[in-house]
Input
Amino acid sequence: MTSTKQGTLSRGDAGALIGFCIAGVAIAAYITVFSISRIITLLSGTMVPVLVEFVDQPIEAPLGANGENITLELDRASITVPSLPPVAIGAGILGQIAQIVTIVVVIGCLMLLARSILTGAVFSRRNTRLVMAAGIVGLVGFAAVQFFENMLSNAAVAEVTDNAVDNAVISIEPFTFVLAAFIISVIGTAFVIGDRLQRETEGLV
Output
């Protein structure tokens, strides 16, 4: 593993990195507690609130003049399901587990990276692997979370409406996904180039 000291951080930079680490721990703890609470709610199987997305679903609402109904297109809504089927409960739990694992791994990698930078080593093979691992796990993990949440919402709507409403939506925004992949690639490439240039510079000394 190639890793050398690359300078001393200023007190302000070191404080910012330490603050980043503290914030990371707080975020991971909050997400973990929230997901565990959600899992407990899902396991109860009754009166479970579920966020649902719709496609071309018109509804009537009394928002016109004198309370007249006007037609709106419903995009998303929260519904409370009296009883969830096992497949929906399983999908919801898998989504929450995927969320916990993704957040913990990503924040863990970034905290290890911050620790390495605090010691003065910015560009190294280890740091490059940490950056790429955080990016890939984040990309795949959040896609998995969205996939399982879509399964939960579709099953919930089918249960409530007795399959009268077709909202089979598997929504993973392609632009956001591609943009995130591009940003991760750029950052990973920057670390790879930085590590190589550092090793070449060391070879000239």
